[in-house]
Write a structure and sequence with these properties.
Four copies of one chain form a homotetramer. Chain A has 365 residues and is of the alpha+beta class. Chain A has a single domain (4-357), classed as Chorismate synthase AroC (Chorismate synthase, AroC fold). In chain A, 27% of the residues lie in helices and 23% in strands. The first copy, chain A, has helices at residues 37-47, 92-95, 107-113, 131-147, 174-182, 190-205, 233-241, 263-266, 337-357; strands spanning 4-5, 10-15, 21-27, 65-68, 70-71, 74-75, 80-85, 151-159, 162-163, 212-219, 247-252, 270-273, 276-279, 287-288, 291-292, 297-303, 313-317, 322-326. In chain A, the strands form six sheets. A five-stranded antiparallel β-sheet of chain A has the order 1-2-3-7-4, with helices on one face. The longest helix of chain A is centred in the C-terminal third of the chain and has 21 residues, at 337-357. The two termini of chain A are 34 Å apart. Chains in contact: A-B, A-C, A-D, B-C, B-D, C-D. Chains A and B meet through β1, α3, α7, β11 and α8 of A and β1, α3, α7, β11 and α8 of B.
Amino acid sequence: MSSIWGSNIKISLFGQSHGKAVGVTIHDFPAGVKLDMKSISGWMKRRSPGQDLFSTSRKEEDSFEILSGIVDEKTTGEPLTAVIYNKDIKSQDYEDIAFLPRPSHADYAAHIRYGGHNDKRGGGHFSGRLTAGLVFAGGVCEQVLEKKGVVCGAHIKSIKDIEDKSFDLVNVSAGLLRELRAKDFPVIDDKVGNKMKQAILFAREKGDSVGGVIECAIVGFPAGLGDPMFDGVENKISSLIFGIPAIKGIEFGRGFDISKIYGSQANDDFYIEHSKVKTHSNNNGGINGGITNGMPIVFRVAVKPTPSIFKEQNTVNLKTMQNAKITIQGRHDPCIVKRAVPVVEAAANIAALDLILGDKRWIWT
Amino acid sequence: MSSIWGSNIKISLFGQSHGKAVGVTIHDFPAGVKLDMKSISGWMKRRSPGQDLFSTSRKEEDSFEILSGIVDEKTTGEPLTAVIYNKDIKSQDYEDIAFLPRPSHADYAAHIRYGGHNDKRGGGHFSGRLTAGLVFAGGVCEQVLEKKGVVCGAHIKSIKDIEDKSFDLVNVSAGLLRELRAKDFPVIDDKVGNKMKQAILFAREKGDSVGGVIECAIVGFPAGLGDPMFDGVENKISSLIFGIPAIKGIEFGRGFDISKIYGSQANDDFYIEHSKVKTHSNNNGGINGGITNGMPIVFRVAVKPTPSIFKEQNTVNLKTMQNAKITIQGRHDPCIVKRAVPVVEAAANIAALDLILGDKRWIWT
Amino acid sequence: MSSIWGSNIKISLFGQSHGKAVGVTIHDFPAGVKLDMKSISGWMKRRSPGQDLFSTSRKEEDSFEILSGIVDEKTTGEPLTAVIYNKDIKSQDYEDIAFLPRPSHADYAAHIRYGGHNDKRGGGHFSGRLTAGLVFAGGVCEQVLEKKGVVCGAHIKSIKDIEDKSFDLVNVSAGLLRELRAKDFPVIDDKVGNKMKQAILFAREKGDSVGGVIECAIVGFPAGLGDPMFDGVENKISSLIFGIPAIKGIEFGRGFDISKIYGSQANDDFYIEHSKVKTHSNNNGGINGGITNGMPIVFRVAVKPTPSIFKEQNTVNLKTMQNAKITIQGRHDPCIVKRAVPVVEAAANIAALDLILGDKRWIWT
Amino acid sequence: MSSIWGSNIKISLFGQSHGKAVGVTIHDFPAGVKLDMKSISGWMKRRSPGQDLFSTSRKEEDSFEILSGIVDEKTTGEPLTAVIYNKDIKSQDYEDIAFLPRPSHADYAAHIRYGGHNDKRGGGHFSGRLTAGLVFAGGVCEQVLEKKGVVCGAHIKSIKDIEDKSFDLVNVSAGLLRELRAKDFPVIDDKVGNKMKQAILFAREKGDSVGGVIECAIVGFPAGLGDPMFDGVENKISSLIFGIPAIKGIEFGRGFDISKIYGSQANDDFYIEHSKVKTHSNNNGGINGGITNGMPIVFRVAVKPTPSIFKEQNTVNLKTMQNAKITIQGRHDPCIVKRAVPVVEAAANIAALDLILGDKRWIWT
């Protein structure tokens, strides 16, 4: 599906880092939803670059222009297109290195994929800048989810080896998720957050970079959504999440750790509370057989260190096919994790709305 | 897409654990491929139950019947359907517990999803038995991949906290993958394998279960395949892999660990060897920007402990909506990891062939 | 999508005319639907060959075996697979002509498409026999539609130049559709039907064949279903209908004739009747902008004369690449139109249920 | 798939008639194609309104802005987005009639579909203006097809009951198609063209409208493309074509007329010419079993009279739910057929490239 994703709503992303614009078209969005544009601007701002020392100095306001799908601030149900123009572009930074693929960037793979015709400026369509459209779409989807009582939120679970507290898999609350969203540096334990910031600044000073883990939760999600075998919650979320650059792993519930305990410890046994079925533990992250069970959906994603570092690196010259050296210029995030938090949340929102819209149980009645 | 997966080949899975049969239809498979049926039987045998003490005592030969798509052992290009009949069924084991969802099984989620109409016998369509069709498809795909010099293989990376050696991300070879496939218990270090077996038998004796991690590699895969942003290698593989029951996480290359090191350590710098572009390290698992870079593709998946344990567990009675107890009867694997190895390999084969068939660069010429 | 069709329910067809079986898997079918198997058998019988002089002498009972998706005659929501075994096969009829493509059959096109590896016996996957799976699926879908008050039905509009009455586009009723279904030779005017039969027998005697037009209506269909621009009712129905062999055209409402009148004559003006919006005429066949408007959906399809005729024809020998002659042996329908009626109805049922399941307006409430 | 179409290339259309812009994103377009922008502007001009008395007086230059996917006039392989801004908008024409659905427009159906939230100005997303994006995409696709020797072209086959000559199904040539494209009023017989113009002007004077039939051919198309059963050439083309507003029918080859002749007359018998397999007649329009046979692909589409007429019509007031009258103001085409010719050609180009890119026979080699 390329840069199109979705079954019940569909997003079509476009743009390159140093092209005229990036953007998104959302198809099949529900009609008649009054959009709070201020809220969406807040989403864009959380992702936008140039805010502080922890991210790139490229400054983009990431204000968006709506081309279609909205009349009088209400969705019309027709395809909704938003464009974010690129403004602070310094493409000369890339001219010298057009044939020197940057290690662990998409440069080389894309060169082979597109026969060298891909836009090499700023990583082209492979740039993290493409997530601006994703965040817009996430902010839009949220406004439907809110009415359904569904809340998605995330925090920085770790930067390098510095670990924040984990979500309580059973009791993670909408309140905590909203609290985290209001934070400038979204961690549960702010003291840990300060250590993380220091680690990022340390890497920045060294011309190096660090990665981390983002933990995301969806609460208030109804049981019984998702389909076997390939349209399950995990399939859907992961197929969307791996569209975000720099993500190298995803795990649900207790994730990889669940493989280290006994079944008797891992199983989430059921009980009734106020006529509702619940589980004592939530090691499966709210998902059984690909279908939600009504407990919080929790997943974690691994974000690699920004591959743009300022140290000299080995590379090859794709013209001469000889070994070469590269020292990356330009403006880059020493750590992309903080800015990736709203992107992961946005993806969670989009997947959640797609799952909800996929509910066809009303046919029974 | 439900129980249908794929873009360039498509698989449509059907069946329930205790129904008449399980099976698969493969659409868009290349025509004229002479299929080595013995090889496919070997695949089925590796996955089949009842082989030893490490797995369920349910005995199924898993011999398959071809209903369409093959004439004189050659594929016709038309939809290829294989059916595996269910023989050794003991459904009475499930009658008593139809309304007592087994913890961490799909029972409860499916009950809500299907309004209680889903086939409750043996987990229905959610059973691991459905992977028989997947393994058949993987075995069929392999026969095209072999001609392209692509080899997929996997080993048990860990059982509970007992760890096998990891694949050398840079140098993992087709030879090692084939060697592992010939092993009855596929680990690199057989001594570790023995410890794993003991751990499984220990869990079995206790009426408990254990999980583990499977590491899979694809070698010989060409550079330049996969598409941004949602049709990348990670998106494709994960969307397929999470269709396998009991998998709760996936990571590529160095995976979650890459978030713990500096960018200068994580980056896979390029060099030329025999006019071919290679990387010194392979922390990205052969994938940059969703596209292959010619290095081995390596990923790991977390397999949870089999939720079927023989200890008494808490559950709820969905008829009376009261708390209840359940003691699972029936025949179950104390550890599904070994049997899941060929399933993960099969998924890798299917995804690999889908990626290769998605190569449209010939249009340039 | 190959032999897979659908968005909200999906059908995956498989099989070849002279292979072991043909069949279908239906994905995403609603759970808990009690299936009237006798009704489905009735559907199969209407399509089945060997009933009378107007069709092929190949005798197939077209009894089906359910492999999955049904427990105690109720759908489970899991993939529903039905297999129809091929019994009365005389493949020797085809051996001599494997390299002599039959004019206007798929033989030559498929030979190029599949490099000669396609199943040449009886047209392989291109045979009209594949519609058995489609008819099964249509019969299953009908049982949901009935509860929603939606009825699909069709009649033979013409055989060669002999024309039955047309449906009244505005007033076509469920009663008439049911009446037609009960007829052995489904025409509105039985006298015309007799002339049609004579024309078919005349062609049969001459070793020739005739085609015709089938007119299909869907009544009781709610307004507001279908999506612009490519998921509209016409797009959906036509993409499914052209999967039926021998169909060369489709038109909705007044169809091609609407191009011959003035806008003032063509426009379907609105009025209110019993608080319901209706139109005086229905030249648009119940569809505006791809979306239903509550009036009957009516379409017509052109069925070409069966290409299997017994007269000697020119062809080429694909081995020697020289001109050749062919005289088709075997058993063939002198006119496929009558047997195609339930196939077109089945397609209408499948498309109608897909459209209904695609209704997401409940999200507003 | 909504306003997304395609398998091997994908187009995502957006915009409303009186919104800020209409446009298209093309995904999976081949990289490295040097685009002749002048040629694309020519395509846009052929479709653009306000050119003469035969069409609406709304004037739109339909100049496009490329937002992504092109660098230095070459495609990058990344999503290609073009935006056409709406300039000459007079929305006040629509305010009075927001609740008075125009007969045979999408107004009423869309009102029900979107709960009244759809953009009512100028038909919103249902306007013929949306085809500007389709035409852009067609013009882009053509530039790849040309290199493959594939040429698509169309003419006005009829306006009302005035008929142009038909394409010679066997011998229609690229030369004729190019000649037609250069004509201001694309008919084979210019004398007939003059009569058509008079008929259009006559309807215009009466405040009425006329429709017609467009005949389209694709020549130079290779044999062996298209897939059974639902990914065939007819399925693909029709699923795309019915996305064009006002089209109510499609037929391939001899179309509906093939149902009126004997099989012995209808069959296209084969012969060898210069070592190439050809057919003497081409009643099947180059398609057998959904797959191309190397002969010209020919299809015809029925275009209804523009529903916007200036005569008073019956309608209903959706607010008061009472009968009402409507007299449409605004600027409208008395006949949309001429402007629809490049739209149908564009659709043919898009479908043709999608089919070519779907060719996977290289896997055999």
